[in-house]
Amino acid sequence: MSIPNETLQKLVQEIETQAITAQREINVVKATVASKQRDMRMLELTTTEIKQLSKDTKVYEGVGKMFMFAPVDSVQKRLASETAELKSDVSNLNKKLHYLETTHKNSREHIDQIFKSGGR
Fold first, then answer.
1. Alpha-carbon distance 17 to 11, whole Å?
2. Comparing C-alpha atoms, which of 80, 101, 90 is closest to residue 35?
3. How many CB atoms lie within 10 A of CB 43?
4. Which pLDDT tens digit goes with each residue over 73-120?
């Protein structure tokens, strides 16, 4: 028993659309992960620099177009929380990336399987 050509064509188009969508999302997720990793690296470097400062050193944070005094401890806490948040985001994005790569791979395998079976 074979599948009619129209049904087969619709099935292949649907699977191909799913594969293309997954590939686009993969590219977006990879770019987002790279951006967040860059931000994490900058936060780590800033943390390293601030740890080298003495406790009585005045530290200023940018707020819009101005700078405001902030205690070293509060700056370190903020940097630590931002780093933890970014690590969590990267972890979640890597899970999403794995899911999307699996979806893309499975879609391609299904299309190949349909073509190899000749619609049977």
1. 10
2. 90
3. 19
4. 999 999 999 999 999 999 999 999 999 999 999 999 988 888 887 655
